[in-house]
């Protein structure tokens, strides 16, 4: 009679490995200087073409309900630690727009902090209290955006992020 083989779980499912990978991703040298060089070589119209349609599709219901109206004519920059890459966007004429340059407020943090925020795996306030995300410039504007995004029912499903 053959004995059943033990079931092996992938190593990434163990708490020690997943916690270690999370820690390493926070402190390993950043690949973003390379991404910054790539980012600077892409013309702004191309960035707008690629980013604006998906952003407006994800937040279409909130935009239609007037949730973004308080942000009319304002600009906010989301930036990965180290200065780049980042994206500056604003709200004009009922649409989210990708802009060139800095924003009135900047929300800065590690890639993993932004990913945690987008996936809603942790309360946004905790990310700010832990200083994993930081607001600079017009903090009132940055907090208003954080509160708006926290109050909306949105998700980042790939089908909503299609370009056309």
TrEMBL record:
The keyword Repressor does not apply. Keywords: Ubiquinone biosynthesis. Residues 57-150 form the SCP2 domain. Pathway: Cofactor biosynthesis; ubiquinone biosynthesis. The keyword Manganese does not apply. Signal peptide: none annotated. Coiled coil: none annotated. Required for O(2)-independent ubiquinone (coenzyme Q) biosynthesis. Likely functions as an accessory factor. HAMAP family: UbiT. Belongs to the UbiT family. This is Ubiquinone biosynthesis accessory factor UbiT. It comes from Marinobacter salexigens.
């Amino acid at each position: 009679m053959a004995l059943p083989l033990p079931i092996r779980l992938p190593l990434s499912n163990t708490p020690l490995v997943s916690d270690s990978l999370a820690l390493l991703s926070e402190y390993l040298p950043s690949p973003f200087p390379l991404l910054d060089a790539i980012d600077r070589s892409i013309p702004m119209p191309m960035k707008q073409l690629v980013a604006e349609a998906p952003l407006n599709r994800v937040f279409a219901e909130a935009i239609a309900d007037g949730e973004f109206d308080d942000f009319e004519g304002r600009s906010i920059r989301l930036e990965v630690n180290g200065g780049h890459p980042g994206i500056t966007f604003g709200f004009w004429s009922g649409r989210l727009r990708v802009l060139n340059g800095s924003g009135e407020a900047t929300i800065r943090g590690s890639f993993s902090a932004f990913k945690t925020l987008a996936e809603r795996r942790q309360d946004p306030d905790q990310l700010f209290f832990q200083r994993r995300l930081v607001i600079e410039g017009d903090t009132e504007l940055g907090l208003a955006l954080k509160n708006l995004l926290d109050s909306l029912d949105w998700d980042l499903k790939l089908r909503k992020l299609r370009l056309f």
